[in-house]
Amino acid sequence: MSSIIIVLIILVVLVFIALVKTIQVIPQASAAIVERFGRYTRTLNAGLNIVVPFIDSIRNRIDLREQVVPFPPQPVITQDNLVVNIDTVIYYQVTDARAATYEVASYIQAIEQLTVTTLRNIIGGMDLERTLTSREEINAALRGVLDEATGKWGIRVNRVELKAIEPPTSIQDSMEKQMRADRDKRAAILQAEGIRQSEILRAEGEKQSSILRAEGEAKAAALKAEGEAQAIRTVFESIHAGDADQKLLAYQYLQMLPKIAEGDANKLWIVPSEIGDALKGLSGAMGNFGPMGGTPGFNPQNPGKTAGTSGDGSGQPERREQPPID
What we know:
Helix 3 crosses helix 5 (135-150) and helix 7 crosses helix 8. Strand 2 and strand 3 (39-44) form a beta hairpin. The protein contains eight helices and eight strands, in the order H-E-E-E-E-E-E-E-H-H-H-H-E-H-H-H. The protein is rod-shaped and about 175 Å long. By secondary structure, the chain is an alpha+beta fold.
């Protein structure tokens, strides 16, 4: 009885193992390679799949999603014989699980070696400066070569990126010094440009200020001259309206003489030739107001004589004709 139970248990275990091997569940975005007696039979896609137990076997399960593989830095020699270390990142996707399994032993290693050799060919034709500034060009060239080579492996290279380009330490120091010198040069240029603009603005301001000041002074002088002309015109009109005679004009002339001599700077002033005529008219006017037809006064013709007498010392009144009044 016990032997029958043992046989039944063995049968149940074999049936369970057979069921497990028969039913294959493949996750989404994955594929499985099925071999029968070591020979490729079919590719299992995502979902529930049935295989023949103990006859069919799962050779490989492949992820069909896009993969990202970073490669370690690779030393590459540029056209100007400088060694630079370049880090690359490959974005690839398996499109044919059968080809990825049977066409290449290890597609990851194959892609890495192909990337290194292609990168050396591309960088070998560029100098250091172009290498540092042509990442897009290098990426496009790498992607074209890799995509063409990996197509028969059932792999599509979507993108290739250069993660870092590290030149030698001595070159880095030289580049830093050059960059520092360029920054100092740009700063000096900007500072000089600022000073230049400031001087231009200051000169423009001074120019405008001088122009406005000159215009103000010219307008003030014009207004002053116009005021003086108006005053002279008014006085002239008033004199003519009042019909002033020569005696009044001579008196006004003598009143203006002290004002001419005012001021500390007036050390020397010139008496015009008409002053004699003015004094003569004033003397005659003052003589007419004397008690006997004449008052002793100053004779402008001869300071040593008394006004109103003849010049010969006889004491007789001097006769003179009054000039006509205009």
